[in-house]
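User: For a reading group we're discussing how well predicted structures match intuition. Take FAD-dependent monooxygenase. Before you show the prediction, I'll give you the sequence so everyone sees exactly what went in.
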Amino acid sequence: MSRFRVLPGLESALESLWHTTAGQLAGLPGSTRRELLRDATEPQWFVIVTEWADEAALLGYEAGPVAAGLTAALRPLCETSDPPRHRMMREAAGPGRGSAGGPGNAGGDPRMFVDVEVTVPAARLAEFETGYAVVLGRVAGVPGYLREELLHEPGTDTYHIFAEWRTAADFFEWIGDPEHAQREAGPIAPFLLEFRRRIFHPAAHPAGEHRTPGTDKEIDVESMTDVLIVGAGPTGLTAAVELARRGIACQVIDRLVAPVGQADKAIGVHCRTMEIWEEQGIVRPAMDAGLWLTGNLVFVNGAQVGRVDWDLPELPYAHLGLPQYETERLLTDRLATLGVRVRRGAELTGFDQDGAGVTATVVTAAGIERVRAKYLIGCDGAHSRVREQLGLTFSGGLGRFPQLFMLCDVDVDWDMPDGHLLRFMHETDGQMDGMLVCVPLRGESRYRIATLAPPRFFAQTGGAEAPPGFSAELGSPTLEDLQTAIDRLAPAGTKASNLRWSSVFRISHGIVDRYRDGRVFVAGDAAHLHPPAGGQGMNTGIQDAWNLAWKIALAVRGIAAPGLLDSYETERRPEGEEIVGRAVRMAFTDELDRADLKRQFLQEMSLLLSYANSPLVGECVADPDALRAGPRPGDRAPDVWGLHRHGVGHPLRLRDLTAGTRHTLLAYADDSVGEAELAAIAELYADVRRQTAGEVDGYLLLDPDAPTPRAATPPQVRDTEGGFRSAYGVRGAALYLVRPDGHIGFRSQPVDAAELRKHLHLVFGGVG
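Assistant: Thanks. Here is the predicted 3D structure of FAD-dependent monooxygenase, as structure tokens, for the group to look at:
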């Protein structure tokens, strides 16, 4: 089986090519089956299936002119010039045969594939697809079930349910249960009265290696790196920047030959993301390239029902509008300054891991390469290959909204306030039946607009699932389509013009059952899919990478405690689960149904994000009221202004002290702290530096009236305006430990050296 993605509009050209090729294949010795199948849920993906009588027949085909001609003809039709992804299998001779270590099970791989061929008359297609969506959600919870694809033979009523199981025993135990037919498969049982089932097992290539038919470019290259990052979107680029800032060798690969150049993905950059970008060194070019989003207006049935202005003086940065392609450009440029360049046109096809690392197979235009890394991070989006190979499943199944939406980039002539996100809704009997979301872009009167797609698009698909996220697979909506929606929902007289591009998409949502498997991690859309409400997807992925990268860097250097990497899933998955759930709830509401609108906005901007329930954070507070006014362990460390350091002629921010790639120990002392306590703080700081191999920086923040200590370390900073004392709720002697990701790891009042050392052991293990 060879799987590949065809460029939009070239599907008929592919089918014509296949008609010719199938005739050529039929004349080859040993060719027993030739089929072109189309993914029923992702219509740009096709699968070529060939079957051969024996290995000699397969090798003869691969070395011959038919394979070479097919490869050359496919290249201009496919999304990338890379060879198709291959899956090679042997058919089991009978039920249960080929289990682990049995015939046709190369290398003892216990997995099993099941091909169920069913006939679905066109008149009953909608019934089948509705039932199949239910079955897919039910079967996800069956022990041993991994994943499946629904494939269609173009121009016929024949469909293939192609499923992968962990072992043959799991599959036969399931079908051996007489209740399984109604419990899981019941909704499509009428279509299973007559079906054909075939069972396969993984097989190695007869030549003993993965082959790319007819390319004449096969190579066997070995390369090594500390971390392999799959996917060069915002999540993968953020992880790479953070690793490179810490001197960790990494490779970033992406299957696309060139980055996407239109704004059909994320636009909103959250306030917390702007703080991260400040530390990464791209906040100024981001502000120069973007547009401030200053508020939100909501209309229902033509009447304004809510207005929120986001001009909050206490924000570190406001909410920025910036197309995702600009975000990727800025991060890519920053990564290049750190000596790392994205390897484009490089597709991950598989990997294996052991106790020391991961070996990945990467296919490029030059051939096949094996990359050996200590860790692998899958940031490869909604169709993640990493997620697929790990066998991760979406908890509760992958949800999809039934509606189809269209997305357009246009100019709009109307009388609306600049910089505001605008949401127009129409309700009938309390139910939303129309929605128009308009996000301003840089440029005069330019907006990205999302609304329900015209009925003809739904009719065109028969209700079939569009892939998660944005796509152009169902054709391009016209300016007239958009104007029809505007006439119904926007203020009278509103006109759209200058349609730059448009597409159709369906909203999917879900979160995987786990974020880590050994030395392999998933982040961003590979781990969670969101409705676009609140613009959470990209920003959440950036937060994933921000949390994970500093931990992997310590692990690569051999100074991480054994449980440190586990904390990535412990901290990030609950956040992802909460965000997915909130985005689903808000998708078809006016988004202004909370009493505290300011808190809602701060939550959306990730400024209230806390890891308070993480086992990696802690405190030691003798008085229950001590530090009550300050940030809790796990909370984001708030910034403070008005600090002064001797020899510096301007006030400092707390962020000037905590920025960087290491932990920061902030000790505080007021005028009640004696010389002996100050000396103990200096001794503790020196001891912490030894315990953590220099991975903790430190400062002594002095109250305005506190005496100046004699000790030269840690460096001293005066809290001249009392901002730190107020924001962190400190008095007497106290300390806060700020993690590299800007969250509070530990706090103590009074200073408890022993408890701090115990906490550091959770992060750094037995270093020192």
